[in-house]
């Protein structure tokens, strides 16, 4: 018996559109280094292909297309590589961030069908899209503080550009939002009913379009209204997450009345105390940065997450507790938000490379 190896990234050109399907459903399409390389190769080829007016990307579930977009990077690989000092971990982040940059700056319209789970690395390959399509099944988050990491893949850039202090809230808590909030927070452009996705996808491959913009315009005609959370929640987000430090935020939340403040404080208490401080600094620095500079900063940060404190990586420990041993009892160091000092946060923002030798020096 010879086993058929099925590609984890499927691509084809039909009509005037290039179609990509992430095809690793058992892992919720979590990105491997091979998938990152395949996506980069496909997009670079289509950028100069006159037949292709626009690109459409979707995920797949165990039953077929759609249903899950992408749950992030392959964290089991990151745990194994981070524990063993495997140099492929460096290649993964360098190439993933270069792919994120390409998508944000792609020469043709890129349409992301963000059905189901869209988290972490899934945000990295969708937030730069010309048209970000969500459905009533979308579950969107940047949950990295739960594994002792930070919202990377350009998370500093796109979260810091959400209205008010929504970026700080999403980055620190890792809370999940649906379609209406994603649109209200400027992380999506429109909602398409999930049962209409297949029909829209098929039409893109057979209809004749004047140009790439016309492809996007056609998809947008199918958008429907979607409810966001009420304005009082937004006011609370801005009130607490505009405070100067993580210590100030947690103290104010814990002193407040009300279910939302209590639940939010409880969530923060479960996250890596060190990475909460690092992430607040990341989002606030990124607010005044362009994408390329933000990705270079995040590339510096991720090197430090795995190699700054040998033998005590918050990220390796966080992944161990959540995804490997699944004991959900990470031994964070420091253990409490109040014990994190500026002296342990600052090194995350010092680049290990001189500017000319930075692995992402070529991004502009």
UniProtKB/TrEMBL annotation:
<protein>
    <submittedName>
        <fullName>Enoyl-CoA hydratase/isomerase family protein</fullName>
    </submittedName>
</protein>
<dbReference type="Pfam" id="PF16113">
    <property type="entry name" value="ECH_2"/>
</dbReference>
<dbReference type="InterPro" id="IPR029045">
    <property type="entry name" value="ClpP/crotonase-like_dom_sf"/>
</dbReference>
<dbReference type="InterPro" id="IPR032259">
    <property type="entry name" value="HIBYL-CoA-H"/>
</dbReference>
<feature type="domain" description="Enoyl-CoA hydratase/isomerase">
    <location>
        <begin position="17"/>
        <end position="349"/>
    </location>
</feature>
<dbReference type="InterPro" id="IPR045004">
    <property type="entry name" value="ECH_dom"/>
</dbReference>
<keyword id="KW-0378">Hydrolase</keyword>
């Amino acid at each position: 018996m010879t086993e058929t190896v099925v590609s984890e990234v499927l691509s084809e050109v039909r009509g005037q559109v290039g179609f990509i399907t992430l095809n690793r459903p058992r892992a919720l399409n979590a990105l491997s280094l091979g998938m990152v390389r395949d996506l980069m190769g496909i997009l670079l080829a289509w950028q100069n292909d006159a037949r292709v007016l626009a690109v459409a990307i979707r995920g797949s579930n165990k039953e077929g297309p759609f249903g899950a977009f992408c749950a992030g990077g392959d964290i089991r690989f990151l745990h194994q590589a981070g524990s063993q000092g495997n140099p492929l971990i460096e290649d993964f982040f360098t190439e993933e961030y270069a792919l994120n940059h390409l998508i944000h700056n792609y020469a043709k319209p890129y349409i992301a069908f963000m059905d189901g789970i869209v988290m972490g690395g899934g945000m990295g390959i969708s937030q730069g899209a010309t048209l970000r399509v969500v459905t009533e099944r979308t579950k969107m988050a940047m949950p990295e503080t739960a594994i002792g990491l930070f919202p990377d893949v350009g998370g500093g850039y796109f979260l810091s550009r959400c209205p008010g202090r929504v970026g700080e809230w999403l980055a620190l808590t890792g809370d999940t939002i649906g379609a209406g909030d994603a649109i209200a927070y400027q992380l999506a452009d429109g909602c398409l009913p999930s049962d209409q996705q297949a029909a829209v996808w098929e039409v893109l491959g057979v209809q004749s379009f004047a140009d790439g913009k016309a492809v996007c315009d056609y998809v947008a005609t199918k958008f429907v209204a979607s409810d966001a959370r009420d304005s009082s929640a937004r006011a609370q987000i801005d009130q607490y997450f505009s405070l100067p430090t993580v210590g100030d935020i947690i103290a104010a939340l814990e002193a407040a009345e009300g279910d939302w403040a209590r639940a939010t404080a409880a969530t923060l208490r479960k996250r890596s105390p060190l990475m909460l401080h690092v992430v607040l600094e990341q989002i606030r620095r990124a607010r005044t940065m362009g994408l390329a500079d933000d990705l270079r900063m995040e590339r510096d940060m991720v090197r430090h997450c795995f190699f700054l404190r040998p033998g005590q990586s918050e990220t390796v420990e966080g992944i161990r507790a959540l995804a490997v041993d699944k004991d959900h009892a990470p031994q964070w160091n420091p253990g409490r938000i109040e014990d994190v000092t500026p002296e342990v946060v600052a090194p995350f923002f010092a680049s290990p490379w001189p500017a000319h030798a930075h692995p992402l020096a070529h991004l502009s």
